[in-house]
Amino acid sequence: MADISSNNKRIVKNTAFLYVRMIFIMAVSLYTSRIILEALGVEDYGIYNIVGGIVSMFGFINASLSGASSRFIIYSLGEGDKIKSQEIFNSIMTTHYIIAAVVVILAETAGLWFVMNKLVIPDERLTAAFWVYQSTVLSSIIMLVSSPFNALIIAHEKMNAFALISVIEAVLKLFSVFVLFVLPIDRLVIYAILTVTVQVFIRILYTIYCKKHFSESHYHLRFKVDGMKSILMYSAWTMNGNLAIVGSTQGINILFNLFFGPIVNAAYGIALQVQSACNQFCSNFLMAVRPQIIKSYAQDDLSHMHQLILFSTRYSFYLTLLIAVPIISQADYILKIWLVDVPPYTVEFVQFMLVVALNTSLNGSVLIGIHATGDLKKFQMIEGTILLSVVPVSYVLLKYFNVGAIAVFFTYLIIEVITQLIRIWIVFPKIRLAIRYYYTQIMWPIFKVSAVVWIIPYFLKRNLSEGTFSSFIVIVSAAAFSVLLSVVLLGISKNELSFVVEKLKYVLRKK
Q: CA triplet 424, 426, 427: central angle to 5 degrees?
Protein backbone atom coordinates (compact mmCIF):
# COMPACT_ATOMS: atom_id res chain seq x y z
CA MET A 1 0.00 0.00 0.00
CA ALA A 2 2.87 2.35 0.85
CA ASP A 3 4.48 1.62 -2.53
CA ILE A 4 1.24 2.45 -4.35
CA SER A 5 0.92 5.71 -2.40
CA SER A 6 4.54 6.58 -3.23
CA ASN A 7 3.96 5.78 -6.90
CA ASN A 8 0.82 7.93 -6.99
CA LYS A 9 2.72 10.85 -5.44
CA ARG A 10 5.43 10.40 -8.07
CA ILE A 11 2.80 10.50 -10.81
CA VAL A 12 1.38 13.74 -9.38
CA LYS A 13 4.84 15.34 -9.07
CA ASN A 14 5.94 14.28 -12.55
CA THR A 15 2.64 15.41 -14.03
CA ALA A 16 3.20 18.84 -12.44
CA PHE A 17 6.67 19.11 -14.03
CA LEU A 18 5.26 18.09 -17.40
CA TYR A 19 2.40 20.57 -17.24
CA VAL A 20 4.70 23.46 -16.40
CA ARG A 21 6.77 22.35 -19.40
CA MET A 22 3.71 22.07 -21.59
CA ILE A 23 2.26 25.49 -20.73
CA PHE A 24 5.56 27.21 -21.44
CA ILE A 25 6.23 25.29 -24.64
CA MET A 26 2.68 25.74 -25.89
CA ALA A 27 2.82 29.50 -25.41
CA VAL A 28 6.20 29.74 -27.12
CA SER A 29 5.22 27.35 -29.91
CA LEU A 30 1.99 29.17 -30.75
CA TYR A 31 3.85 32.46 -30.92
CA THR A 32 6.64 30.83 -32.93
CA SER A 33 4.12 29.47 -35.45
CA ARG A 34 2.71 32.94 -35.99
CA ILE A 35 6.18 34.42 -36.58
CA ILE A 36 7.12 31.55 -38.93
CA LEU A 37 4.00 32.13 -41.02
CA GLU A 38 4.81 35.84 -41.15
CA ALA A 39 8.46 35.21 -42.05
CA LEU A 40 7.89 32.52 -44.68
CA GLY A 41 4.55 33.51 -46.13
CA VAL A 42 1.63 31.14 -46.75
CA GLU A 43 3.14 29.41 -49.82
CA ASP A 44 6.59 28.72 -48.32
CA TYR A 45 4.95 27.67 -45.06
CA GLY A 46 2.84 25.19 -47.03
CA ILE A 47 5.95 23.92 -48.84
CA TYR A 48 7.77 23.42 -45.52
CA ASN A 49 4.79 21.54 -44.14
CA ILE A 50 4.36 19.16 -47.09
CA VAL A 51 8.09 18.50 -47.61
CA GLY A 52 8.63 17.95 -43.90
CA GLY A 53 5.57 15.73 -43.93
CA ILE A 54 7.19 13.39 -46.45
CA VAL A 55 10.13 12.89 -44.09
CA SER A 56 7.79 12.40 -41.14
CA MET A 57 6.36 9.43 -43.01
CA PHE A 58 9.73 7.79 -42.32
CA GLY A 59 9.27 8.97 -38.75
CA PHE A 60 6.96 6.04 -38.09
CA ILE A 61 10.16 3.98 -37.87
CA ASN A 62 11.51 6.27 -35.17
CA ALA A 63 8.19 6.19 -33.32
CA SER A 64 8.17 2.39 -33.42
CA LEU A 65 11.72 2.06 -32.13
CA SER A 66 11.14 4.71 -29.46
CA GLY A 67 8.09 2.84 -28.23
CA ALA A 68 10.09 -0.38 -28.10
CA SER A 69 12.96 1.36 -26.29
CA SER A 70 10.62 2.79 -23.69
CA ARG A 71 8.73 -0.46 -23.13
CA PHE A 72 11.78 -2.72 -22.75
CA ILE A 73 13.71 -0.28 -20.54
CA ILE A 74 10.73 0.36 -18.24
CA TYR A 75 9.95 -3.37 -18.07
CA SER A 76 13.55 -4.22 -17.09
CA LEU A 77 13.55 -1.48 -14.44
CA GLY A 78 10.30 -2.91 -13.11
CA GLU A 79 12.02 -6.29 -12.78
CA GLY A 80 14.93 -4.62 -10.95
CA ASP A 81 17.65 -6.28 -13.08
CA LYS A 82 20.45 -3.73 -13.75
CA ILE A 83 22.54 -6.12 -15.85
CA LYS A 84 19.57 -6.85 -18.07
CA SER A 85 18.88 -3.11 -18.36
CA GLN A 86 22.45 -2.57 -19.66
CA GLU A 87 22.10 -5.42 -22.17
CA ILE A 88 18.77 -4.06 -23.38
CA PHE A 89 20.17 -0.54 -23.82
CA ASN A 90 23.09 -1.89 -25.89
CA SER A 91 20.69 -3.88 -28.06
CA ILE A 92 18.42 -0.87 -28.49
CA MET A 93 21.27 1.46 -29.52
CA THR A 94 22.65 -1.04 -32.04
CA THR A 95 19.17 -1.49 -33.50
CA HIS A 96 18.72 2.27 -33.83
CA TYR A 97 22.04 2.67 -35.67
CA ILE A 98 21.12 -0.05 -38.15
CA ILE A 99 17.64 1.34 -38.79
CA ALA A 100 19.06 4.87 -39.17
CA ALA A 101 21.15 3.66 -42.10
CA VAL A 102 18.05 2.11 -43.69
CA VAL A 103 16.08 5.35 -43.26
CA VAL A 104 18.83 7.36 -44.99
CA ILE A 105 18.72 5.01 -47.98
CA LEU A 106 14.92 5.17 -48.25
CA ALA A 107 14.79 8.93 -47.74
CA GLU A 108 17.49 9.69 -50.32
CA THR A 109 15.97 7.44 -52.98
CA ALA A 110 12.20 7.00 -52.93
CA GLY A 111 11.51 9.99 -50.68
CA LEU A 112 13.67 12.45 -52.61
CA TRP A 113 12.28 11.29 -55.96
CA PHE A 114 8.71 11.85 -54.74
CA VAL A 115 9.46 15.36 -53.44
CA MET A 116 11.23 16.51 -56.60
CA ASN A 117 8.92 14.87 -59.13
CA LYS A 118 5.43 14.43 -57.71
CA LEU A 119 4.65 17.17 -55.21
CA VAL A 120 2.98 20.35 -56.45
CA ILE A 121 5.76 22.90 -55.79
CA PRO A 122 6.43 26.04 -57.88
CA ASP A 123 9.50 25.57 -60.12
CA GLU A 124 11.33 28.52 -58.60
CA ARG A 125 11.05 26.92 -55.12
CA LEU A 126 12.28 23.42 -56.02
CA THR A 127 15.86 24.17 -54.93
CA ALA A 128 14.65 25.50 -51.59
CA ALA A 129 12.40 22.45 -51.20
CA PHE A 130 15.43 20.21 -51.83
CA TRP A 131 17.41 21.77 -48.98
CA VAL A 132 14.41 21.73 -46.67
CA TYR A 133 14.08 18.02 -47.39
CA GLN A 134 17.77 17.31 -46.71
CA SER A 135 17.69 19.27 -43.46
CA THR A 136 14.59 17.44 -42.32
CA VAL A 137 16.13 14.05 -43.14
CA LEU A 138 19.21 14.93 -41.07
CA SER A 139 17.02 16.09 -38.19
CA SER A 140 15.07 12.82 -38.30
CA ILE A 141 18.28 10.75 -38.20
CA ILE A 142 19.55 12.69 -35.19
CA MET A 143 16.29 12.07 -33.37
CA LEU A 144 16.37 8.39 -34.31
CA VAL A 145 19.82 7.62 -32.91
CA SER A 146 19.27 9.64 -29.73
CA SER A 147 15.72 8.63 -28.80
CA PRO A 148 16.91 5.80 -26.47
CA PHE A 149 18.30 8.52 -24.17
CA ASN A 150 14.85 10.15 -24.02
CA ALA A 151 13.40 6.74 -23.20
CA LEU A 152 15.88 6.35 -20.33
CA ILE A 153 14.90 9.67 -18.76
CA ILE A 154 11.20 8.84 -18.95
CA ALA A 155 11.72 5.26 -17.72
CA HIS A 156 13.57 6.57 -14.66
CA GLU A 157 10.74 9.13 -14.25
CA LYS A 158 13.13 12.11 -14.22
CA MET A 159 10.53 14.45 -15.65
CA ASN A 160 12.18 17.55 -14.17
CA ALA A 161 15.21 17.07 -16.44
CA PHE A 162 13.00 16.23 -19.41
CA ALA A 163 10.95 19.38 -18.82
CA LEU A 164 14.00 21.65 -18.47
CA ILE A 165 15.65 20.45 -21.68
CA SER A 166 12.34 20.78 -23.55
CA VAL A 167 12.01 24.39 -22.39
CA ILE A 168 15.53 25.13 -23.65
CA GLU A 169 14.59 23.60 -27.00
CA ALA A 170 11.47 25.78 -27.32
CA VAL A 171 13.44 28.95 -26.55
CA LEU A 172 16.12 28.08 -29.12
CA LYS A 173 13.47 27.41 -31.77
CA LEU A 174 11.91 30.80 -31.11
CA PHE A 175 15.31 32.47 -31.34
CA SER A 176 15.99 30.73 -34.67
CA VAL A 177 12.76 32.20 -36.09
CA PHE A 178 13.79 35.76 -35.17
CA VAL A 179 17.11 35.14 -36.93
CA LEU A 180 15.14 34.75 -40.18
CA PHE A 181 14.38 38.48 -40.18
CA VAL A 182 18.09 39.34 -39.90
CA LEU A 183 19.84 37.08 -42.42
CA PRO A 184 19.52 38.34 -46.02
CA ILE A 185 19.14 34.89 -47.65
CA ASP A 186 16.35 32.44 -48.50
CA ARG A 187 14.29 32.27 -45.31
CA LEU A 188 12.83 28.83 -46.06
CA VAL A 189 16.28 27.27 -46.44
CA ILE A 190 17.85 29.01 -43.45
CA TYR A 191 14.90 28.06 -41.23
CA ALA A 192 15.38 24.38 -42.10
CA ILE A 193 19.11 24.61 -41.33
CA LEU A 194 18.55 26.41 -38.02
CA THR A 195 16.01 23.75 -37.00
CA VAL A 196 18.63 21.03 -37.52
CA THR A 197 21.18 23.02 -35.51
CA VAL A 198 18.81 23.27 -32.56
CA GLN A 199 18.06 19.56 -32.82
CA VAL A 200 21.77 18.66 -32.65
CA PHE A 201 22.35 20.81 -29.58
CA ILE A 202 19.33 19.40 -27.71
CA ARG A 203 20.31 15.82 -28.48
CA ILE A 204 23.78 16.50 -27.03
CA LEU A 205 22.15 17.74 -23.81
CA TYR A 206 20.03 14.59 -23.49
CA THR A 207 23.06 12.37 -24.04
CA ILE A 208 25.23 14.20 -21.49
CA TYR A 209 22.50 14.03 -18.83
CA CYS A 210 21.92 10.30 -19.31
CA LYS A 211 25.60 9.40 -19.25
CA LYS A 212 26.01 11.35 -16.02
CA HIS A 213 23.01 9.87 -14.17
CA PHE A 214 22.26 6.39 -15.58
CA SER A 215 24.94 3.69 -15.60
CA GLU A 216 23.16 1.65 -18.29
CA SER A 217 23.42 4.55 -20.77
CA HIS A 218 27.09 3.85 -21.56
CA TYR A 219 26.93 2.13 -24.93
CA HIS A 220 29.16 -0.83 -25.77
CA LEU A 221 29.05 -2.80 -28.98
CA ARG A 222 27.98 -5.87 -27.04
CA PHE A 223 24.49 -7.22 -27.19
CA LYS A 224 22.50 -10.43 -27.12
CA VAL A 225 21.02 -11.62 -30.39
CA ASP A 226 17.86 -12.74 -28.60
CA GLY A 227 17.49 -9.28 -27.10
CA MET A 228 17.80 -7.59 -30.48
CA LYS A 229 15.38 -10.09 -32.00
CA SER A 230 12.75 -9.33 -29.35
CA ILE A 231 13.17 -5.59 -29.83
CA LEU A 232 13.00 -5.87 -33.63
CA MET A 233 9.91 -8.09 -33.54
CA TYR A 234 8.20 -5.74 -31.11
CA SER A 235 9.22 -2.73 -33.22
CA ALA A 236 8.07 -4.40 -36.43
CA TRP A 237 4.53 -4.84 -35.16
CA THR A 238 4.50 -1.38 -33.60
CA MET A 239 5.72 -0.05 -36.92
CA ASN A 240 2.58 -1.26 -38.62
CA GLY A 241 0.43 0.85 -36.30
CA ASN A 242 2.71 3.89 -36.45
CA LEU A 243 2.89 3.66 -40.24
CA ALA A 244 -0.88 3.76 -40.29
CA ILE A 245 -1.00 6.83 -38.02
CA VAL A 246 1.62 8.72 -40.03
CA GLY A 247 0.20 7.41 -43.30
CA SER A 248 -3.30 8.56 -42.44
CA THR A 249 -2.33 12.11 -41.39
CA GLN A 250 0.37 12.67 -44.02
CA GLY A 251 -1.56 10.73 -46.65
CA ILE A 252 -4.36 13.25 -46.24
CA ASN A 253 -1.74 16.02 -46.46
CA ILE A 254 -0.50 14.64 -49.79
CA LEU A 255 -4.05 14.30 -51.12
CA PHE A 256 -4.72 17.93 -50.21
CA ASN A 257 -1.56 18.92 -52.08
CA LEU A 258 -2.47 16.92 -55.18
CA PHE A 259 -6.09 18.08 -55.32
CA PHE A 260 -5.97 21.60 -53.83
CA GLY A 261 -2.32 22.83 -53.67
CA PRO A 262 0.03 24.32 -51.00
CA ILE A 263 -2.49 26.83 -49.62
CA VAL A 264 -4.68 24.03 -48.23
CA ASN A 265 -1.52 22.31 -46.95
CA ALA A 266 -0.83 25.45 -44.91
CA ALA A 267 -4.32 25.28 -43.36
CA TYR A 268 -3.90 21.57 -42.62
CA GLY A 269 -0.47 22.17 -41.10
CA ILE A 270 -1.90 24.80 -38.74
CA ALA A 271 -4.75 22.44 -37.78
CA LEU A 272 -2.24 19.69 -36.99
CA GLN A 273 -0.28 22.10 -34.78
CA VAL A 274 -3.40 23.04 -32.83
CA GLN A 275 -4.33 19.36 -32.48
CA SER A 276 -0.81 18.55 -31.31
CA ALA A 277 -0.93 21.33 -28.72
CA CYS A 278 -4.30 20.06 -27.49
CA ASN A 279 -3.02 16.49 -27.34
CA GLN A 280 -0.22 17.66 -25.06
CA PHE A 281 -2.74 18.11 -22.26
CA CYS A 282 -3.30 14.38 -22.07
CA SER A 283 0.02 13.09 -23.44
CA ASN A 284 1.98 14.79 -20.64
CA PHE A 285 -0.29 13.15 -18.09
CA LEU A 286 0.11 9.78 -19.85
CA MET A 287 3.88 10.19 -19.95
CA ALA A 288 3.85 10.34 -16.15
CA VAL A 289 1.48 7.34 -15.90
CA ARG A 290 3.14 5.12 -18.54
CA PRO A 291 6.09 3.87 -16.44
CA GLN A 292 3.75 2.89 -13.60
CA ILE A 293 1.40 0.94 -15.89
CA ILE A 294 4.23 -1.05 -17.48
CA LYS A 295 6.05 -1.63 -14.18
CA SER A 296 2.79 -2.83 -12.59
CA TYR A 297 2.39 -5.37 -15.38
CA ALA A 298 6.03 -6.49 -15.02
CA GLN A 299 5.41 -7.03 -11.30
CA ASP A 300 2.12 -8.88 -12.04
CA ASP A 301 0.13 -6.23 -10.16
CA LEU A 302 -2.81 -6.26 -12.59
CA SER A 303 -5.25 -4.67 -10.15
CA HIS A 304 -3.16 -1.50 -9.90
CA MET A 305 -2.58 -1.56 -13.65
CA HIS A 306 -6.35 -1.72 -14.33
CA GLN A 307 -7.03 1.16 -11.95
CA LEU A 308 -4.41 3.30 -13.67
CA ILE A 309 -5.76 2.55 -17.16
CA LEU A 310 -9.40 3.29 -16.30
CA PHE A 311 -8.53 6.40 -14.29
CA SER A 312 -6.04 7.86 -16.78
CA THR A 313 -8.30 7.26 -19.81
CA ARG A 314 -11.12 9.33 -18.34
CA TYR A 315 -8.86 12.12 -17.15
CA SER A 316 -7.05 12.24 -20.49
CA PHE A 317 -10.39 12.93 -22.15
CA TYR A 318 -11.34 15.60 -19.59
CA LEU A 319 -8.00 17.37 -20.00
CA THR A 320 -8.41 17.40 -23.78
CA LEU A 321 -12.01 18.57 -23.45
CA LEU A 322 -10.90 21.47 -21.24
CA ILE A 323 -8.88 22.82 -24.15
CA ALA A 324 -11.00 21.68 -27.09
CA VAL A 325 -14.33 23.23 -26.06
CA PRO A 326 -13.05 26.84 -25.68
CA ILE A 327 -11.01 26.63 -28.91
CA ILE A 328 -13.83 25.09 -30.96
CA SER A 329 -16.24 27.72 -29.63
CA GLN A 330 -13.96 30.62 -30.63
CA ALA A 331 -11.72 29.12 -33.33
CA ASP A 332 -12.26 31.96 -35.81
CA TYR A 333 -11.36 34.69 -33.32
CA ILE A 334 -8.38 32.80 -31.86
CA LEU A 335 -6.90 32.15 -35.31
CA LYS A 336 -7.26 35.81 -36.30
CA ILE A 337 -5.41 36.90 -33.15
CA TRP A 338 -2.77 34.20 -33.56
CA LEU A 339 -2.10 34.31 -37.31
CA VAL A 340 -3.66 37.62 -38.45
CA ASP A 341 -3.72 36.33 -42.06
CA VAL A 342 -5.70 33.08 -41.73
CA PRO A 343 -5.42 30.68 -44.72
CA PRO A 344 -8.70 29.39 -46.23
CA TYR A 345 -10.26 26.31 -44.57
CA THR A 346 -8.19 26.79 -41.40
CA VAL A 347 -11.10 27.39 -38.99
CA GLU A 348 -13.01 24.31 -40.14
CA PHE A 349 -9.86 22.16 -40.21
CA VAL A 350 -8.96 23.17 -36.65
CA GLN A 351 -12.43 22.39 -35.33
CA PHE A 352 -12.50 18.96 -36.94
CA MET A 353 -9.00 18.05 -35.76
CA LEU A 354 -9.94 18.95 -32.19
CA VAL A 355 -12.90 16.57 -32.36
CA VAL A 356 -10.47 13.91 -33.62
CA ALA A 357 -8.17 14.79 -30.68
CA LEU A 358 -11.01 14.08 -28.23
CA ASN A 359 -11.44 10.61 -29.68
CA THR A 360 -7.68 10.04 -29.75
CA SER A 361 -7.38 10.94 -26.05
CA LEU A 362 -9.30 7.76 -25.22
CA ASN A 363 -6.66 5.42 -26.65
CA GLY A 364 -3.48 6.52 -24.83
CA SER A 365 -3.74 4.34 -21.72
CA VAL A 366 -5.23 1.48 -23.72
CA LEU A 367 -2.18 1.48 -25.99
CA ILE A 368 0.15 1.53 -22.99
CA GLY A 369 -1.68 -1.54 -21.68
CA ILE A 370 -1.20 -3.60 -24.84
CA HIS A 371 2.41 -2.44 -25.15
CA ALA A 372 3.07 -3.62 -21.60
CA THR A 373 2.08 -7.16 -22.62
CA GLY A 374 4.38 -7.14 -25.67
CA ASP A 375 1.71 -9.13 -27.58
CA LEU A 376 1.13 -6.73 -30.47
CA LYS A 377 0.72 -8.83 -33.61
CA LYS A 378 -3.07 -9.11 -33.90
CA PHE A 379 -3.68 -5.66 -32.44
CA GLN A 380 -1.34 -3.78 -34.77
CA MET A 381 -2.42 -5.63 -37.89
CA ILE A 382 -6.08 -4.80 -37.35
CA GLU A 383 -5.58 -1.25 -36.03
CA GLY A 384 -3.10 -0.31 -38.74
CA THR A 385 -5.25 -1.62 -41.57
CA ILE A 386 -8.35 0.27 -40.43
CA LEU A 387 -6.53 3.57 -39.79
CA LEU A 388 -4.71 3.53 -43.11
CA SER A 389 -7.97 2.95 -44.99
CA VAL A 390 -8.73 6.68 -44.69
CA VAL A 391 -6.27 7.41 -47.52
CA PRO A 392 -7.78 5.22 -50.28
CA VAL A 393 -11.32 6.06 -49.17
CA SER A 394 -10.54 9.80 -49.25
CA TYR A 395 -8.84 9.45 -52.64
CA VAL A 396 -11.92 7.80 -54.12
CA LEU A 397 -14.17 10.52 -52.68
CA LEU A 398 -11.94 13.31 -54.03
CA LYS A 399 -11.24 11.73 -57.40
CA TYR A 400 -14.60 10.28 -58.37
CA PHE A 401 -17.16 12.16 -56.29
CA ASN A 402 -15.52 15.62 -56.36
CA VAL A 403 -16.10 16.20 -52.64
CA GLY A 404 -14.54 19.13 -50.82
CA ALA A 405 -11.73 19.04 -48.28
CA ILE A 406 -14.19 19.02 -45.35
CA ALA A 407 -15.63 15.67 -46.46
CA VAL A 408 -12.19 14.12 -45.95
CA PHE A 409 -12.33 15.12 -42.28
CA PHE A 410 -15.74 13.49 -41.83
CA THR A 411 -14.24 10.30 -43.25
CA TYR A 412 -11.20 10.58 -40.98
CA LEU A 413 -13.34 11.05 -37.85
CA ILE A 414 -15.64 8.09 -38.62
CA ILE A 415 -12.66 5.77 -39.15
CA GLU A 416 -11.01 6.99 -35.92
CA VAL A 417 -14.15 6.21 -33.89
CA ILE A 418 -14.47 2.71 -35.39
CA THR A 419 -10.78 2.06 -34.67
CA GLN A 420 -11.15 3.05 -31.02
CA LEU A 421 -14.01 0.59 -30.47
CA ILE A 422 -12.00 -2.23 -32.01
CA ARG A 423 -8.98 -1.36 -29.83
CA ILE A 424 -11.05 -1.96 -26.71
CA TRP A 425 -12.42 -5.29 -27.92
CA ILE A 426 -8.87 -6.52 -28.55
CA VAL A 427 -6.88 -5.01 -25.68
CA PHE A 428 -9.08 -5.43 -22.60
CA PRO A 429 -9.26 -9.26 -22.81
CA LYS A 430 -5.45 -9.40 -23.23
CA ILE A 431 -4.85 -7.47 -20.02
CA ARG A 432 -7.65 -9.39 -18.26
CA LEU A 433 -9.88 -6.35 -17.83
CA ALA A 434 -13.63 -6.78 -18.46
CA ILE A 435 -14.86 -4.76 -21.45
CA ARG A 436 -17.94 -3.64 -19.52
CA TYR A 437 -15.70 -1.41 -17.37
CA TYR A 438 -14.83 0.63 -20.47
CA TYR A 439 -18.48 1.53 -20.93
CA THR A 440 -19.46 1.89 -17.25
CA GLN A 441 -16.35 3.63 -15.87
CA ILE A 442 -15.17 5.53 -18.95
CA MET A 443 -17.77 6.04 -21.69
CA TRP A 444 -20.83 6.68 -19.51
CA PRO A 445 -19.19 9.45 -17.41
CA ILE A 446 -17.64 11.17 -20.43
CA PHE A 447 -20.90 10.89 -22.38
CA LYS A 448 -22.73 12.76 -19.61
CA VAL A 449 -20.03 15.42 -19.48
CA SER A 450 -19.83 15.80 -23.28
CA ALA A 451 -23.60 16.13 -23.59
CA VAL A 452 -23.82 19.27 -21.45
CA VAL A 453 -20.51 21.15 -21.86
CA TRP A 454 -21.57 22.77 -25.12
CA ILE A 455 -24.80 24.32 -23.79
CA ILE A 456 -23.36 27.44 -22.13
CA PRO A 457 -20.83 28.30 -24.91
CA TYR A 458 -23.52 27.80 -27.59
CA PHE A 459 -26.02 30.03 -25.77
CA LEU A 460 -23.44 32.79 -25.27
CA LYS A 461 -22.19 32.60 -28.85
CA ARG A 462 -25.76 33.02 -30.11
CA ASN A 463 -26.48 36.04 -27.92
CA LEU A 464 -23.21 38.00 -27.71
CA SER A 465 -21.63 40.22 -30.35
CA GLU A 466 -19.25 38.33 -32.64
CA GLY A 467 -15.60 39.31 -33.01
CA THR A 468 -15.16 41.46 -29.90
CA PHE A 469 -12.51 40.83 -27.27
CA SER A 470 -15.02 41.03 -24.42
CA SER A 471 -17.24 38.37 -26.05
CA PHE A 472 -14.18 36.19 -26.62
CA ILE A 473 -13.15 36.37 -22.95
CA VAL A 474 -16.68 35.65 -21.73
CA ILE A 475 -17.24 32.67 -24.05
CA VAL A 476 -13.82 31.08 -23.50
CA SER A 477 -14.05 31.49 -19.72
CA ALA A 478 -17.59 30.13 -19.69
CA ALA A 479 -16.57 27.18 -21.85
CA ALA A 480 -13.71 26.26 -19.52
CA PHE A 481 -15.94 26.68 -16.46
CA SER A 482 -18.62 24.54 -18.12
CA VAL A 483 -16.13 21.71 -18.61
CA LEU A 484 -14.83 21.87 -15.03
CA LEU A 485 -18.33 22.03 -13.54
CA SER A 486 -19.59 19.16 -15.72
CA VAL A 487 -16.60 16.99 -14.79
CA VAL A 488 -17.05 17.65 -11.06
CA LEU A 489 -20.82 17.02 -11.11
CA LEU A 490 -21.06 14.24 -13.70
CA GLY A 491 -17.61 12.91 -14.57
CA ILE A 492 -15.86 11.78 -11.39
CA SER A 493 -16.77 9.75 -8.32
CA LYS A 494 -17.07 11.15 -4.80
CA ASN A 495 -13.87 9.36 -3.77
CA GLU A 496 -11.95 10.91 -6.67
CA LEU A 497 -13.33 14.35 -5.86
CA SER A 498 -12.26 13.94 -2.22
CA PHE A 499 -8.79 12.89 -3.36
CA VAL A 500 -8.43 15.97 -5.58
CA VAL A 501 -9.66 18.30 -2.81
CA GLU A 502 -7.19 16.81 -0.32
CA LYS A 503 -4.32 17.23 -2.78
CA LEU A 504 -5.27 20.87 -3.39
CA LYS A 505 -5.44 21.52 0.36
CA TYR A 506 -2.01 19.93 0.77
CA VAL A 507 -0.53 22.15 -1.95
CA LEU A 508 -2.11 25.29 -0.48
CA ARG A 509 -0.85 24.44 3.02
CA LYS A 510 2.70 24.06 1.67
CA LYS A 511 2.48 27.51 0.13
A: 65
